[in-house]
Specification:
This is Small integral membrane protein 3. The protein has 58 residues and is mainly alpha-helical. Helix content is 64%, strand content 0%. The longest helix has 33 residues. The mean pLDDT is 82.
């Protein structure tokens, strides 16, 4: 009966990855998705600037 009266400390479950690893994975995912959106647009802008220079007005 004495075992039931004294509660044992509850142990937290061991996670597969640490919290900082999960944060790094989330940040890397955000960086990759953002770069996939921005880099093609930047490439088009650079291409248009290099191939179609602005002609100065008379």
């Amino acid at each position: 009966m004495s075992d039931l009266a004294t509660p044992s400390p509850v142990e937290l479950p061991k996670h597969i990855l640490d919290v900082w690893v999960i944060v790094l994975i989330i940040l890397a995912t955000i960086f990759v998705m953002t770069s996939m959106l921005l880099f093609p647009a930047v490439a088009v802008i650079i291409y248009r600037i290099r191939t179609h220079p602005i002609r100065s007005a008379r």
